[in-house]
Amino acid sequence: MMNKYQEFFISNYIISSKKKRLIYEIDSTKKKRCFIDHFCHDTKKFIISNKIIYEGELNDSFFIMERVKNEHFFVMSENYIDGITMDYNELKELLDKDLMEVIAISKKHVIIKEETEKKSNVYILE
Q: Labelling 101: which of 54, 56, 66, 92 has CA 20 to 30 A away?
């Protein structure tokens, strides 16, 4: 079942034509991985573009990350398929180390890191 963070993410940051599909996937035990996989390389096909306050490499996002350092996040990734709560420091460590996609949702922001081998493409939404 979708929690309040996932509902907030889909309601406020996902384009209308994709919402129904993502709700179905997040609510399905078998399809939850498909939900996360959409943000592997195709993030821009799913998110509302005018909500993006930063798009680029993780290492270059410091000035924006300062805005979220006091927030707690509900984090979904390949390793946390059902999600886990993290503070900023735990999230930053995960973003730095994990090569797979990561979706981090707070009450004010969403951070999406796409799957990468070398450079991390990150979207910060507000």
A: 66
Q: The pTM is what? A: 0.92
Give the whole-angstrom CA distance, residue 13 versus residue 100. Answer: 21
5-50 pLDDT, tens digit each? 999 999 999 999 999 999 999 999 899 999 999 998 889 999 999 9
SS3 content of the chain, % helix, strand, coil (to 5): 45, 25, 35
CA distances from 70 to 3, 11, 90 (A): 21, 23, 12
The secondary structure of residue 29, as a DSSP letter, is: T
